[in-house]
Amino acid sequence: MELTAEHKKKIKKIVAKADKQTMTVKTVRRTLEKSLGLEKDALKPLKEELTAYVTLLIDPPTPAKEKKPPAKKAKPESTEDARIVQLKKMGQAVRAGPTLFKGLKDLDADAKAAELKERLVAKGYEISGEAPTAKEIKAAKRQRDQMEEDDNGMDLSNIITGKRRRADVTYAAAPAPLEENNVDGVDEDSEAEFV
């Protein structure tokens, strides 16, 4: 036995009239049995099919939309000059700090690029063109890392080398123990003198 088109039509009417808060599949099945003039539990073999159909009526599936892969957020185009961007990358790679960029806000793009390049070259980094290439940035970073590895960021001129000298200290001899004089002959009222 299966759910026929007539069964489905009657189930739709029953579900439409029923209170969705108190309705169960069992009450729908019993109501359908009464409307078809069948005995109690005559449609019990169709329980699973009936449950699926009632669920479909109550909560119809939404049409599946084609899932598009999430679009990658495009980085906003930088309005900054490409030379300046490369010089900033080099400054960050060598951890030059904020003093590298100090006082550059008011300059135009050409002057800013020239000043950044001049400051980086003054720090000992090589830049062959107007802006550093990726290879020059990597080389500068390696140079910075090598310098840190060599001295771990310490000023080696402050290190004292040689043996440590101890101060020449002479110690005084310990005082001799006190002797008790006339312990037997001392009154309690008078004070005893110790030499």
TrEMBL record:
User: Region annotation Disordered: residue ranges?
Assistant: 58-81, 171-195
Q: Where is the composition biased (Basic and acidic residues)?
A: 64-81
Q: Where is the DEK-C domain?
A: 1-59
> Could you tell me where the Acidic residues compositional bias lies?
181-195
GO CC aspect terms: nucleus
Organism domain of life: Eukaryota
Known InterPro entries for this protein? Answer: DEK_C (IPR014876), HIRIP3 (IPR037647)
Fetch the PANTHER family from UniProt.
Answer: HIRA-INTERACTING PROTEIN 3 (PTHR15410:SF2)
Its name, as the record gives it, is: DEK-C domain-containing protein
Source species of the chain: Pelagomonas calceolata
